[in-house]
Amino acid sequence: MRIGLIGAGAVAGYHIGATDSIVGAEVTAVCDLDESTARRAASLARDAAVFTDYRVMIDRADLDAVIVNTPHSLHLPMTVEAARAGLHVLVEKPMATSVADCDTMAAESAAAGVALAVGHIQHFLPDKVAAHELIASGEVGDVLMVRDHRSTDYRPGSRPGWFFSPEVAGGGALFNIGGHCLDRSVWFGGARAVEVSASTVRRFDSPVETDGSISLRLENGVGVSIAVLSDPPGRNDNLAIVCERGVIEADPRAGTSVQIDGHRRMVHEPGHDDIQHAFTAQLRDFIAVVGGAAPTVPLEHARHVVQLVLESYRSAATGAAVRVPEGADVIAAGVAGR
What we know:
This protein is an alpha/beta fold. The protein has 2 domains: 2-120, Rossmann fold, CATH 3.40.50.720; 123-271 and 278-336, Dihydrodipicolinate Reductase, domain 2 (2-Layer Sandwich), CATH 3.30.360.10. It has 11 helices and 15 strands. It has helices at residues 12-18, 35-44, 54-60, 75-84, 99-112, 126-137, 166-169, 173-189, 274-290, 299-318, 328-336; strands spanning 2-6, 26-31, 49-51, 65-68, 88-92, 116-119, 143-152, 193-201, 211-218, 223-230, 237-243, 247-251, 255-260, 263-268, 322-323. Strands 14-13-12-11-7-10-9-8-15 form a 9-stranded mixed sheet, with helices on one face. The protein has a 6-stranded parallel sheet with strand order 3-2-1-4-5-6, with helices on both faces. A hairpin with a 3-residue loop joins strand 11 and strand 12. The protein is globular, with a radius of gyration of 20 Å. Residues 130-249 form the GFO/IDH/MocA-like oxidoreductase domain. Residues 1-120 form the Gfo/Idh/MocA-like oxidoreductase N-terminal domain.
């Protein structure tokens, strides 16, 4: 598989590194508006061809697939153009900035007969995989409640400028970091969300929210509590899953542990290569999807994550809990939330 990487930003090295242990997969072209950034990434990929226009890369690079690793609002046009050119697409999360855009991406890919997958990396991180496997074993019983706390930094200047553009990023800390939390919390909760209550805060004179909290009620009755805090005293990335017979905690820095009746044990010890392992597993999954396998992360789930971010913004704006729309109402709500 000859892969073109569109966007050579923060996680480009992980995407390229994923091909090192996958026979037959290679990043053969890299595109970024900043040519020097593209060249640095290309040097990690055995001197892949360098482009500064993704359309030119799609037209000239003789590719089988692309990885879209760009600002959120660009996911739609880049995915659609790649699909129409007959290329399979792995697009970074969030899938898009509206539910309608998600539907367009899925429809265009299906019409072109190409595979589309969304890079929700949480499903491949070893600490989360270990927690999910423990729940699947039945040892701790059913999931009853999920609590997800994450820190981030949304001070202006702390990250590239596009993150602070509502039009380009779709929102702030909740769209970016909160998207990870919504993804994994709903995944562990085991059902779609039917009700959302949220609040947001803007600090540092930021044009987008810097902090926020989200409460979800899932269809199966599981309650979810999410908090995203910007620039707190300590870094935090802790997912706690309350089950019938024990509590699991998963943290990429601390590993995965479980406490059952007063006794704690480690389920996964953190490793220095856990993140690269996750990106490699994600690429393997994408290649399997190209071959006809079902994706680890269904498109419906990726779409639901976008929907929940938008519904969180609606709840924060109205100061009230909101019902998560279904069916035809979903597209209308997505467009209105842009």
